[in-house]
Amino acid sequence: MTTTPQTEPRWLSPAEQHLWRTFLRMRQQLDAQLARHIQLESDISIADFSVLVVLTDVPEGRVRVLELARGLQWEKSRLSHHLARMVKRGLIERAECSEDGRGSFVLITDAGRRAIEAAAPRHVELVRTLFFDPLSEEQVTQLTQISERILGAMEGCPEALPES
């Protein structure tokens, strides 16, 4: 069975357009507030925090660079530049992969662990205040279901990050 490509765009209804723009504005403001507060209240940026979260979520505190790029949805060049800055500040270390000699690992340092442990309590309190506190338990459940459904729809989309 052959499907014909749709010729007319499926424009958003006024209610859909309002929801979409409200969602984008909410996400942008939430991202900006979280970034601003973490920078003001700790010695790390929101990008540092994101990298350190991934490293503290794995047992050995180390992850392959390519895995990190995919997990963060960052381009390799952005990640490479950011990791170099974090190495200079002593938050992480880079290590060659002895198993295959091609890849490399990112490892959290003691300083990186101290930095995220200091930043995390204030960060989670702000997340709770800005995101969870305004919602009822039912709304949290609904938003979880909605988010999972949208993420599921995106699973079939091609990766934004190139392999190389």
Short description:
This protein is mainly alpha-helical and 164 residues long. The protein has helices at residues 14-41, 46-56, 65-72, 76-88, 110-132, 137-154, and strands at residues 62-64, 92-96, 104-108. It has a three-stranded antiparallel β-sheet.
Structure description:
By secondary structure, the chain is mainly α. It has a domain of 114 residues: Arc Repressor Mutant, subunit A, CATH 1.10.10. Helices cover 62% and strands 8% of the residues. It is built from 6 helices and 3 strands; from the N terminus they run H-H-E-H-H-E-E-H-H. Strands 1-3-2 form a 3-stranded antiparallel beta sheet. Strand 2 and strand 3 form a beta hairpin. Helix 1 packs antiparallel against helix 5. The longest helix has 28 residues. It is globular and about 50 Å long. The two termini are 36 Å apart. The C terminus is likely disordered.
